[in-house]
Design a protein that fits this description.
With 284 residues, this protein is α+β, with helices and mostly antiparallel strands. It is built from six helices and eleven strands. Strand 2 and strand 3 form a beta hairpin. Bound molecules: zinc ion (ZN).
């Protein structure tokens, strides 16, 4: 799944191109892509037609178009979902699933999704959040993010540090890529029990998260998966700056020994065995 920087890149592009515009036509080309809209495809198109997009919002990895009147069009990007801006005359993409057209014509919004794990749904908004996003914690780029509160939350959770960083109810927006990069920068191992995490270590790793995400955002995101693209279909280039994630066997940019890959929750974790020792360091 795309992580916060990749989703924020898309949010900014959509804010520029669709905010303030009024929907006139909706074409659902694959029923799976609106399956989360439980009232069905006809209700989906009927409720979207004529609505003005007030703003484009995000929390963590979740993205939605604010339709006003307590409604939002929530985009579930899943593994391969893309929100693209395209000229109405442009040839349909092979995996075009939903087309949204606007009263003012050019350009249109297309939801493209190769694997159809993602989708669109209209959701009720309560306290500023669509209902499926209500349990998602604030992300590190949120102005109201409370650092010390999040550290305390991580310490209270009896788990490993990386699992806590990936827990979207504690802190949102972080996935495998930015967790590994932040842990590498903080020189901490993801398996460290959260109960042993000091407040200073917590501050170090969360500062690293903010830092790496801000840098990735400036680079247009990470295109480690070729499906993470902006609204024009272009990839970011932060993958060139990755120090640990996906770098197994390559030298650690800090100490030069080979980055290792370890199994983690049916996926992989990448870390430096010297800079990020697996056991908590002995206190002197
Ligand atoms: Zn190293």
């Amino acid at each position: 799944m795309p992580e916060l920087p990749e989703v924020e890149v898309v949010r900014r592009g959509l804010a520029e191109h669709v905010a303030g515009r009024t929907v006139c036509g909706v074409e659902v080309r694959h029923p799976r892509s609106v399956r989360r809209h439980l009232a069905g495809e006809l209700d989906f198109t009927a409720r979207l037609r004529g609505r003005q997009i007030r703003a484009v919002r995000r929390r963590g990895k979740y993205l939605w178009l604010d339709l006003g009147d307590g409604d939002a069009l929530l985009a579930h990007l899943g593994m391969s979902g893309q929100m693209r801006i395209q000229h109405p005359g442009a040839i349909d993409e092979t995996h075009l699933r939903v087309r949204i057209q606007f009263v003012d014509g050019d350009p249109e919004l297309r939801f493209i999704d190769q694997r159809t794990f993602g989708g669109l749904s209209i959701e009720e908004v309560i306290d500023g959040l669509p209902i499926p996003v209500a349990h998602i914690a604030r992300d590190p780029l949120d102005p109201l993010f409370e650092l010390d509160e999040v550290i305390a939350g991580i310490q209270a959770r009896r788990t490993g540090l990386k699992r806590a960083l990936l827990d979207q109810t504690l802190i949102s927006g972080i996935g495998n890529i930015y967790a590994d990069e932040a842990l590498w920068r903080a020189q901490l191992h993801g398996a460290q029990p959260t109960a042993t995490l000091t407040r200073a270590q917590g501050r170090t790793v969360l500062s690293a998260v903010t830092e790496v995400m801000t840098e990735a955002l400036a680079a247009g995101g990470t295109s480690f998966d070729a499906l993470y693209v902006n609204i024009n279909g272009a990839s970011g280039y932060f993958d060139r700056s990755l120090a640990a994630y996906g770098q197994a066997g390559r030298p650690c940019p800090r100490c030069g020994i080979a980055i290792q890959r370890e199994p983690f929750m049916n996926r992989s974790s990448f870390s430096c065995p010297r800079c990020q020792p697996r056991l908590p360091q002995t206190r002197i």
